[in-house]
Amino acid sequence: MAENIEPQTQTDDIGPDPSLLLVDDDAPFLRRLARAMETRGFAVDTAESVAEGIAKAKTTPPKYAVVDLRLGDGSGLDVIAAIRQRRDDTRIIMLTGYGNIATAVNAVKLGAVDYLAKPADADDIFAALTQRPGEKVELPENPMSADRVRWEHIQRVYEMCDRNVSETARRLNMHRRTLQRILAKRAPK
């Protein structure tokens, strides 16, 4: 005789503490993501600035966090550091529209468990937040193009030079204005 087995719900993936802090200065995106995460079982709190994110992290450190890298008043890396000072088991996802390897490495060193480039949808974010340790991440269907690899290298050198355009241009043997044009553009696909 077969037993009735209930399918696992998404809240089972979250665990006993569903607290989630979302930090992003794009208000419409923040509202949409908050609604999407609430429907998946999270208890969502939001912040639109580094200062607000740090304050919320200090008063009620969350079990989960999704933090944008570039905010109007600074870097989301500061919010990650504030969360880590209060709670070391928080699963933190770094989101950014300016994805590059150097900032991903910094985010992971500070305690982020994953790094997603915008536009990331709610399913990708939920999967990253609830991924169990040791689970394999699916390989991308389309690997990076040569232009994207070049852009990533330029971004890495730029970060290594503490975001100094002149020093970066010198190290890359590139004209400074050419470098500025590349840095002003979005990442190629």
TrEMBL record:
Coiled-coil ranges from the UniProt annotation: none
Matching InterPro entries: ActR_PrrA_rreg, Bact_response_regulator, CheY-like_superfamily, Sig_transdc_resp-reg_receiver
SUPFAM superfamilies named in the record: CheY-like (SSF52172)
Segments traversing the membrane: none
Modified residues (4-aspartylphosphate): D68
Organism superkingdom: Bacteria
rRNA-binding keyword on record: no
Pfam families per record: Response_reg (PF00072)
The entry's keywords: DNA-binding, Phosphoprotein, Transcription, Transcription regulation, Two-component regulatory system
Record domain Response regulatory: where: 19-133
Protein name, as recorded: ActR/PrrA/RegA family redox response regulator transcription factor
